[in-house]
Amino acid sequence: MLEACVIATILCGFIGIIFKENLVIKIISMDIMSTGVIAYYILIAARDGLHTPIISDRPNLDYADPVPQAVILTAIVIGLSIQALMLVGVMKLARNNPTLETKVIEDSVTK
Known about the structure:
Elements: H1 2-19, H2 23-45, H3 67-96, H4 102-110
């Protein structure tokens, strides 16, 4: 069930990127798709019987690998940075164009 929700989230983001014309909605769709990919990665990495890698008194515990956590945190930070950069680009684009619709912007540039 969780896998279906995660795949649906990724597809919703992908459809938004492909079919929506507004640039802000495209950026939000990209964020939704990124969230789905991160959730899918976490869903695959989660396993029963593993403990967090913290030093404890109990001997012989199986610890989860901390590298996927670091990768996910890095992906979140990079995704946030890319979103901020794209929003700045959209703001600069909005200064010269009255709309954020891609077709209208393309038509105004080609004329």
